[in-house]
Amino acid sequence: MIQISGRTKITGIFGHPVEHTLSPAMHNAAFKALGLNYCYVPFLVHPDYLEDAIKAIRALNLCGVNVTVPHKEKVMPLLDEINEEASFIGAVNTIVNSEGRLIGYNTDGRGFMQSLLESGISVEGKNVLIIGAGGASRAISYYLSQNTKTLYLYNRSKNRAEKLVQDLKKIRNNVSLIEDISSIERYHIIINATPLGLKKEDPLPFDTSLLRAEQTVCDLIYKKTRLLEEASKKGCVTLEGLGMLLWQGLFAFELWTGKKPQVEVMRNALMKSNK
Ligand code: NDP
């Protein structure tokens, strides 16, 4: 256990629900390993009290917090400043209290890119498909479109994908909207950025019988989903979302403390609490 004292700096997470969050385990393990007098606390923040909770960051002198479902978008107008990537994404997952000034960041996209990198998956010059156009898709597409040959976007509701493609086209010229995902063989890398797969009975996001062994399949859900199991059977390289969760947390940790945490300490804590 972390030893709480009068000097302990407080970070945490605002969410509703928040009971299942894995973040306290990885951050508290990392604070302890570096001997930092910080702690990370889950805060169950009902949507009706979000504004009060944000004011409390200043009032209680919290160092900063993570923000999760359902507050990531609603929190934006309540902050003093939003950095560039969080503005593009339209969602904040990390708030830093900089001497009373609340600054919003989004570390999800960088987290995903780092998890690709550490898994040896290169997107350079590749055709990449993202399925889904919600917050997570917006976060990763901001970065993926910097390096891929072409970034393709597909979503159940076409208008949401259209809006994301329009926004990306303001800053990139290699983004394309896809209206059906029957030609799955066209893509080097396919990423599921929908919640399909969270539940056992969920259908697969696409027909996995079309996959070839040369393809890579990623799922942002942080467990080995049926999609990844099917892709493995086909011989594809696969990547689950746990690495993204780890690295987005690690980047938030750096923003709050200015220190580099020990990656393996955070990863072990995460894996232990994800069982
Ligand atoms: P959002 O609610 O913002 O977006 C969900 C997206 O999935 C939308 O495009 C939605 O389509 C689509 N979708 C939802 N249900 C279905 C369905 N039944 N069939 C087809 N499409 C569907 O969620 P997020 O973008 O925040 O999260 C998406 C996933 O990514 C979640 O599983 C989440 O757990 C994971 N995630 C993982 C992170 C990590 O660190 N590993 C970080 C953030 C998210 P429509 O527009 O039509 O509703």
Overall description:
44% of the residues are buried. The strands form two sheets. The chain has a six-stranded mixed beta sheet, sandwiched between helices. It has a six-stranded parallel beta sheet with strand order 9-8-7-10-11-12, sandwiched between helices. The chain has helices at residues 23-34, 50-59, 84-89, 108-118, 135-147, 158-169, 226-233, 242-257, 263-273, and strands spanning 9-15, 38-44, 64-67, 81-82, 94-98, 101-105, 127-131, 150-154, 175-177, 189-192, 216-219, 237-239. Helix content is 36%, strand content 20%. The chain contains nine helices and twelve strands. It is α/β, with parallel strands linked by helices and 275 residues long. Helix 1 (23-34) runs antiparallel to helix 9 and helix 8 (242-257) packs across helix 9. NADPH dihydro-nicotinamide-adenine-dinucleotide phosphate binds at residues 108, 132-137, 155-157, 160, 193-196, 198, 220-222, 241, 244-245, 248.
Question: Could you list some keywords that capture this structure?
Answer:
alpha/beta; 20% strand; 275 residues; 6-stranded parallel β-sheet; globular; binds NADPH dihydro-nicotinamide-adenine-dinucleotide phosphate
Proportion in β-strands: 15-25%
- Number of contiguous helices: 9
Number of strands: 12
Rg for CA atoms = 19 Å
User: What ligands does this structure carry?
Assistant: NADPH dihydro-nicotinamide-adenine-dinucleotide phosphate
Helix and strand content put the structural class at alpha/beta
Largest sheet: 6 strands, mixed
What is the N-to-C order of secondary-structure elements (H for helix, E for strand)? EHEHEEHEEHEHEHEEEHEHH
Q: Please give the share of residues in helix.
A: 25-40%
- Average pLDDT reading: 96
Strand order of the largest sheet: 2-1-3-5-6-4
Spans where pLDDT lies below 50 across 5 or more residues: none
Distance between the termini: 20 Å
Overall, the morphology is: globular
